[in-house]
Amino acid sequence: MTKKNFSSFLYNHGDRITLLKRVLAYLGHPDQNFSIIHICGTNGKGSTSMMIAACLENLDQRVGLFTSPAIGQQTNCIQVNGVEISKGHLNDLFMKLKQVMAISEFHDAELSDFEALFLASMLYFSEEGADYVVLECGLGGELDATNAVTTTLYSIFTEIGLDHLGVLGNSLEEIVTTKSKIIRPANTTIIAPQHSQIINGIIKREATIKGARLIDAAKTVIIHSQNIGQQLMVDYQTSQQHGQFQFGLLANYQLENVRTVIAWLIDFCQSKHLTNQISDLLNHALATINVPGRFETVNKKPMIIVDGGHNLDGITAFANTVNTIFPHYNKLIVTGFLKDKDYQDSVHKLLGIKQAHFIITEPDNVDRRLAARQLQQAFIDASGITYPVFKRPITAIKAAINAANRQSKLLIFVVGSFYLLNPIRTYLINKEDKYNGDTK
């Protein structure tokens, strides 16, 4: 039994949360067997989730981690202390869910892929005896499958921007309102440093209504960061303490995410009356951390970095990071987007990268991919330059590697949809090309 037995997308198709709550109740409320740290936002959810999970593991806790979309295999979405669920076990849980939905109580109601994956994770984390579960929202907030859980210890909001317009809402205010509904009564809610007081105001209002304790991570300040090879040495300051730690994530935007992690860690240790030094915990947990698909180096000769900057905010952060870390290198950037993203403004941001040329391709999503020729035209309109097009991501990365082999000190980047990153990343790591289609 595989995930193909579930529907591809059912978000906002009727009252999904009530259905999922009923399924969880029928399964014995597995979500109540551990404490949940619920993470929601537009950008930075995955990185923040993985950093918090790493900190909890460093505190000798048994930690479940649920993230999406999958980077590599689907099993990557469900992990306990860094070990992902096996394919066989995941398929067994899918089979169990199919059997549950077939009983008369549920009248053969459908589950989406994501809903089934979420429910399977709750069962798995309960079976594995997790102490804490770091639960990353999928598409949204209020109607997101993960919001079917009974209660949460923390609601953490990463950076929120305009994404999934028309699905989550038609304005920033509507999107933030939708996301704010993950806050649970009397929990602790943490807001990442935001660029808009509108965002803060809406989340604070919802926290007040729910009687949740509120922490603003903007009060955590990065005083200084210095590159020391493959790591950063980070100095931070809060209203309560200051410290220093080594940080394994070089992208500029990760410094914003780690501010949220520091705010959470200080509060968590205080609430649990732990006497551990925060700097030591951060150093041990984050010095060598790697977040797949987020400014990740997947090949060294030539150097290839992949980044899932799939919306305007993500592309902006990517461009700023590349210009900061590699200002004087020639760059070849493989890129492709989904057609429901703001790709035209993203093109303008990419063209602001110094000494960069581009190879254009298409993500591995037949229904949602932006045609490579259409993206090529956006580059022509913005720059007057006709960059080469390859329909298949693997052909595109092979062309980039060939170019790097002819030109020394040429850096290769892959940026855009995770549906673009996945096939390229899998090919580079495993040297496996699962595609059999056209080569152009």
From TrEMBL:
Keyword set, alphabetical order: ATP-binding, Ligase, Magnesium, Metal-binding, Nucleotide-binding
- Where does the Mur ligase central domain start and stop, copy by copy? 39-263
What Gene Ontology terms describe what this protein does at the molecular function level? ATP binding; dihydrofolate synthase activity; metal ion binding; tetrahydrofolylpolyglutamate synthase activity
Output a single Gene Ontology CC term carried by this record: cytoplasm
Per UniProt, residues of the Mur ligase C-terminal domain are: 293-417
Q: Which domain of life is it from?
A: Bacteria
Q: Which reaction does it catalyse?
A: (6S)-5,6,7,8-tetrahydrofolyl-(gamma-L-Glu)(n) + L-glutamate + ATP = (6S)-5,6,7,8-tetrahydrofolyl-(gamma-L-Glu)(n+1) + ADP + phosphate + H(+)
Q: Provide the E.C. number(s) assigned to this enzyme.
A: 6.3.2.17
Q: Which NCBIfam families match?
A: folC
Could you say which protein family the record assigns here?
Belongs to the folylpolyglutamate synthase family.
What name goes with this protein? tetrahydrofolate synthase
